[in-house]
Amino acid sequence: MVSEKRKMRQKQAAMLISISKAIAEAGTPSHRLEAYMQVILEKFNFSGQFVAFPTAIIASMGDGENQRTYMVKTKVGDINLGTLQRINSVINDIENNVINIDTALETIQHIKDQESEFPNWLLVLSFGIVGVGFSTLFGGGWLDVLASFCLGVVTGIIARTGENYFHLSHVTAPFAAMVVGFLAILIHHYSSGINYVLVALSGLIVLIPGLGITIAMRELSTEHLVSGSGRLAGAVTVLFLLSFGLALGYLIGHRFFGDEAFTLSPPTPEWFRYLALVFTSMAFTVIFKARIADVFWIFLSIGIAYAGSQIFKLWLEQPFISLATAVFIATAGNMYSRMTDNPASVMQIPGIILLVPGSMGFNSLTAMYTHDTITGVQAAFSAALVAVAISVGLLAGNLFVPPKKDL
Known about the structure:
This protein is mainly alpha-helical and 407 residues long.
């Protein structure tokens, strides 16, 4: 009897370790992961604790002499809303006695090994569509939108190729930025003129770690100092790599085609901006590997973020626009979680993407590379304030509607 109980405990511990590793590599922040795993420990009547870092998880489970400590190496994964949904479904099935521990372990392992249900070509196309969406938000014209789509596709091709080649994966960010910077100058030279700064930023927008900066600030604000510091350092490093690569691409382009000022075009009409938001929502569904059934909720989240920022702009200035909008997004995400029993991240993350200060931080480093130090420092400070405002807004939203789950 004791032996069977011990085996059951070992299976439960193995399942908990697998769950924590899977949701960590799906982009879950440390504070959410630790809180979620603590809830699951209580459901299994386990005493223990989880400590999460961006690249590792330490778990201690058991009482007294029976306590065991595990350390699991994890990868810094991209956001994968589909994995979070599937893990959440497994936990719900265990709670409702629909499946047993053995089935849960097998299912979780299958989830970790499962490929995205979207083909590679669609993911690459989504990079271009997101580039279109952000170029319209940045006030680009028709030529800017078309160029942003092309450069977004180029970024997607490089990013997907980098995942399959070990050495290329370490230089994906600067290499993509260099290629995009050069191509932006090339398009500007041979076309009637584009705002190549805006176009390059839009084409690279998916790689810019604005969400990583925001998550890091949120971890720091919830006293996860090691994880927050590590994640912030990683995000800033990516920003440096991107801005360095872009500066190199500009340099090569100017050497070939000479120094040319970028061209400002009339922005696209208002109706196209709304249409771009619809397609951007679909593109984020693919990039975040969410379920097709979640397209509506992702679109609603992005709609709330855009409408909120436009409305609050009438009375507020940054960073308070981002603060107020983040409160709305957090509240909406928690309400969605309570109604559907799904992770609140499905609604919160896509909406936050429109608010994150990645482009501001990117522009600050770009300005510093051109020796415009004052502009660069001002932009960096503004980016930090916006990141803090979003983090506070997300935490404040939990006061109005507490989350049902911590995913």
